[in-house]
Amino acid sequence: MLDRERIPRHVAIIMDGNGRWAAAKGVPRIAGHNAGMKAMKEIVKRAHQLGIAHLTVYAFSTENWKRSSEEVSGIFRLLITYVKSELKEMMDNNVRIRILGDPSALPGDALKAVEKAVSRTAGNTGLQFNIALNYGSRDEIRRAVQELVNEVREGRIPGDAISEEMIADRLFTGKLHEDCGDPELIIRTSGEQRLSNFLLWQAAYSEFVFVDTLWPDFTPRRFEEAIEIYQNRNRRFGGRKESI
Ligand code: FPP
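Output (structure tokens, whole complex):
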């Protein structure tokens, strides 16, 4: 049973397996992403109902540009559809959308839709829904280092005083209006067990739950099961045994 008193504050998800889902059904890959978008809608709703403070999803990585232009443009068309169809519900549910990554490289209409969603929901104080778009964690860390170097050069911080906090503050996650902190739980679907350049710094003490379910089949019930697995783990943070 899910313990409603110990819901993780920040959950991150690697939504993997849309392509394999489509292949298994003998439909085009984009039909898999479409089904994946529907699954994502349901997970956002359940996250809101469970009182999760931050939900971060890996929607498009800095490496995903290597896919066919047809697939890439299809994913961004889906993103536009998603934002348009869900904006009202997000407003009703007090959900705030934020982007992690560099959205400036997105196709113009996708960028516009995303910017609108970010600005329209900016006053919402419920679930903070972070969508990683054109996101790569090494790129995120590189940018943070570059910023620190610039600040040292300009004499704003001493070069021998770099702290972990200074680095964390300059990551995309640290720059949100309300720092989303490190995810307590990272879920990856589809049976793959790797981070794929997602939240490398932030995952230092995260619990990982890998499920075999392909993302389009990942239901709110499966989501709750993953949280239950997390609740049964002991988090020690390198120290003494301690229950979460
Ligand atoms: C991974 O499956 C999924 C993606 C790279 C894209 C995720 C997109 C969505 C969930 C729908 C669109 C929503 C937004 C917000 C853009 P895969 O294609 O890597 O699957 P495979 O490993 O089976 O090929």
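The helical segments are 18-25, 29-50, 69-92, 108-120, 137-153, 164-169, 220-231.
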